[in-house]
Specification:
Blueprint: H1 2-45, H2 47-55, E1 125-128, E2 133-134, E3 143-146, E4 149-152, E5 155-159, H3 173-190, E6 195-199, E7 208-214, E8 217-218, H4 219-225
Parallel strand pairs: 2-3, 5-7
Antiparallel strand pairs: 1-6, 3-4, 4-5, 6-7, 7-8
């Protein structure tokens, strides 16, 4: 019975503490509400002076725990950054191919040059067997022009080993008579039978030079002996003496 009485006595103070705690805890909210109401009344009375303060932007609060910036010393020499030098690529020598021997150059064979004989004249040695007449106004085929010129098969022939007067170029009557006589004599010699013509030079516009002969006797020599012609280059004034 004594133990139970002591237990009852000890519990009595505990109940008083709980009441005090419950009474204190119930007044705190009312105190906060009262303070807030008073603050609202004061803010309403002084709103004009409080409004500009609320409109200012709030400055950011810097952290004290930000990383510290390194202090740069003025007397400290600048840091020298060593630049890495560009490394040059070492060229690896490539094995060179062995030089090939030069190819043999074929040498052309020298062909012997054959001597080409000069073209023979059209009438180096030719025998004539046609009938002749005097040249007129038509085409000259086989005819006698003067004492030293005639046409044979359309080619003009000049007797090379004599010179006789020309009818159209006579300077006197005596020269004209000799020219007619030489022309008639040449026509007779040509029509007397076959004759031989030997080339005496290159053909020219004035005619092809030939030596006319029969049985080895020149027509030019015969006309000279008969006084109807003269040797080439001799003076011709004797025809008009």
């Amino acid at each position: 019975m004594a133990k139970t009485a002591t237990r009852g006595r000890r519990k009595a103070p505990a109940r008083g503490k709980s009441k005090a705690r419950s009474s204190g805890g119930g007044l705190l909210p009312w105190a906060v509400i009262g303070i807030a109401a008073i603050g609202g009344i004061v803010a309403h009375d002084h709103w004009k002076s409080i409004q500009p303060m609320l409109a200012r932007p709030s400055t950011p609060i810097t952290r004290d725990t930000a990383e510290p910036r390194p202090v740069v010393r003025k007397d400290a020499p600048p840091k020298q950054v060593a630049l890495a030098a560009p490394t040059s690529k070492v060229a690896v020598p490539q094995p060179q191919p062995l030089p090939l021997p030069p190819a043999a150059i074929p040498t052309p064979m020298i062909q012997p040059i054959k001597a080409v004989p000069p073209p023979a004249s059209a009438a180096v040695s030719q025998t004539g067997t046609v009938a002749f007449g005097y040249c007129g106004q038509g085409a000259h085929i086989n005819c006698v022009g003067d004492g030293g010129v005639f046409w044979y098969k359309g080619e003009k022939i000049v007797i090379a080993d004599m010179a006789s007067p020309v009818v159209d170029q006579a300077r006197c009557d005596g020269e004209r008579r000799v020219a007619f006589a030489a022309k008639s004599r040449l026509l007779a010699l040509l029509n007397a039978g076959p004759f031989t013509m030997n080339a005496a030079g290159k053909a020219e516009p004035s005619g092809a030079p030939r030596v006319i002969s029969r049985d080895g006797r020149s027509f030019g020599a015969q006309l000279i002996n008969e006084g109807l012609a003269r040797k080439p280059g001799a003076a011709g004034s004797a025809w008009c003496a």
